[in-house]
Amino acid sequence: MTAPENTRDQAAADGQGPHGSEPLQPTPSHTVGPFYGYALPFPGGGDVAPANAADTVTVHGYVRDGSGAPVPDALIELWQADADGGLAGAPGSMRRDPVDGGHLGRNGVDFTGFARVPTDADGHWTARTVKPGARPGHPPYISVCVFARGLLHHLFTRVYFPEDTRAHTDDPLLASLDAERRETLLATAEGATGSYRFDIRLQGEKETVFLDFHR
Amino acid sequence: MPLTQRDIDREVAELREAYEASRAAGAPAVHHPARDYAPYRSSALRHPHRPLVPVEPDPETVELHGPVFGPTDVTDIDHDLTRQHTGEPLGERITVSGRLLDRAGRPVRGQLIELWQANASGRYAHLRDQHPAPLDPNFTGVGRTLTGDDGSYSFTTVKPGAYPWRNHENAWRPAHIHFSLFGTAFTQRLVTQMYFPGDPLFAHDPILQSVTDERARQALVAAYDHELSRSEWSLGYRWDIVLDGPSATWIEEGRP
Ligand SMILES: [Fe+2]
Predict the structure, then answer these.
(1) By the 8 A CB rule, do A167 and A173 touch?
(2) What's the rounded Cα separation, in Å, for the pair A106 and A116?
């Protein structure tokens, strides 16, 4: 066993951090690769809205690479507040059947706040959810984590909603961006009520704004 | 001209030397791979050109919280990949155990760990994997578990085989297991791969070598632990995982 491992074990045995010393080095990220498809996606992964939810919204879009080609092997995860802005979440996103080990789908009542959707052959993904409530100092937004073959370290971005124009002026992130870049974080309202388009461009023209929380 | 292993090895060495020179000049350690890593050819069109935009998290930031999972999300045998079919899979039976921690060394409790892997012959149970190695009707290669109160986890499986891929001519991935991990905050989300000690393919693999920091690379390699081997049953490997990223606790208590 190497020295770093020992340090890590000692810190954990104490049940607390190594006070006064360096934080543990994080385990490095790697690409999700091409073959996650039989392991990570689950039935109903994009159906976050409980069955009885009054106002469901559909958020969907394409993932494209630096040449504009669709990315058919990306995995999109969403995490968001409930309609009242609560972030407690709930277990049961990938509820299982203890009889045959299959998937039961969500229980139709609890709001887990979590979606996981692989892109299809067109590079397209869809989630059916409820619009998140605002948090103090923040307009409503859905947090997005993007994984893909070829992407060595996942990327975070956010879906903001176009109708919250006034609240957007107070949002520290949106306020820090010029108009062209800010636009990449705003979903587009579509004809159908409650339908929003949000494309993710990994590179190049209209490249999506990706976020760093590690400062 | 087809791209050879020698071409890739040279690019890997150049990038590693550049990193080591930056360290010698006082630059901080870089733990994660650069998204723009030319030796891994698929990264070319799939990394942003623009720098990431820093977000100063406050306690109301959605990403400082994260999804939760519970006993309904796993079945009792999900952590044992050798028991998911009527027969036993072929291969070397192993256990992989360790702990899930944050950077302050605190255990991450009750969170979901998912893993997936090739079978002992190096083939995934995925339609698009056409490597001409046999599928195993008794092995799917998918596992899940929830971490214990001390952040511990344990999986029983078989050791995956190395497999070829098309990054360059005669490219082979070292044996590895893919892991997906959740912390208490969405910022701590991690997908990575665990390797087995002493694999001769390490030096030739642009994915492992994308982690240019030697110590960080070592953190992806499990340790063989004889204490974890079970007599006449399985070989034991130990691998602890440390999640990066701020969490609500991190904001409340200050940086670790
Ligand atoms: Fe793999």
Answers:
(1) no
(2) 13
Tokens of B31: 């733990």
- Ordered alpha helix ranges (H), chain A: 3-13, 165-168, 172-175, 179-182
Average per-residue pLDDT for chain A? 90
| Residue in the block written with tokens 């969405």 | B186
By C-alpha distance, the chain B residue nearest A29 is: B192
Q: Residue A170's pLDDT band (boundaries 50, 70, 90)?
A: confident
Q: pTM of the prediction? A: 0.94
Distance from Cα A81 to the centre of ligand 1, integer Å: 33
3-state SS assignment for residue B227: helix
**Which residue does chain B place closest to A99, by CA atoms?**
B75
Q: What is the DSSP letter of B151?
A: S
- The model's confidence at residue A167, banded by pLDDT at 50, 70 and 90, is confident
Catalytic residues of B: 124, 163, 173, 176, 178
Does B142 contact A at CB distance below 8 Å?
yes
pLDDT in tens, B176-211: 999 999 999 999 999 999 999 999 999 999 999 999
Determine, for residues B192 and A93 on separate chains, whether the beta-carbon distance falls below 8 Å: no
Kindly determine whether residue B191 and residue A208, on different chains, have CB atoms separated by under 8 Å. no
What are the helix (H) ranges across chain B?
5-24, 206-209, 214-218, 248-253
Query: Please, is A182 exposed, middle or buried when counting C-beta atoms within 10 Å of its C-beta (0-12, 13-18, 19+)?
Result: middle
Classified as helix, coil or strand, A76 is strand
- CB contacts under 8 A, B 30-89 vs A, are 31-35, 37, 40, 42-50, 52-58, 60-63, 65-78, 84
Task: Give the homologous superfamily in CATH for domain B5-45+74-242.
Answer: Aromatic compound dioxygenase (2.60.130.10)
> What gap in Å lies between CA B230 and CA B227, rounded to an integer?
8
Three-state SS at B181: strand
Task: Indicate the domain borders of chain B.
Answer: 5-45+74-242
A69 min Cα distance to partner chain B (Å)? 9
ipTM above 0.90, yes or no: yes
Encode pLDDT of B138-181 as tens digits: 999 999 999 999 999 999 999 999 999 999 999 999 999 999 99
Q: Tokens at residue A25, please?
A: 């080095």
pLDDT in tens, B223-234: 999 999 999 999
Would you state the pLDDT for residue B254? 52
* Residues 175-204, chain B, touching A (beta carbon < 8 A): 178, 180, 186-187, 189-193
Whether residues B189 and A77 touch (CB distance < 8 A) is answered with yes
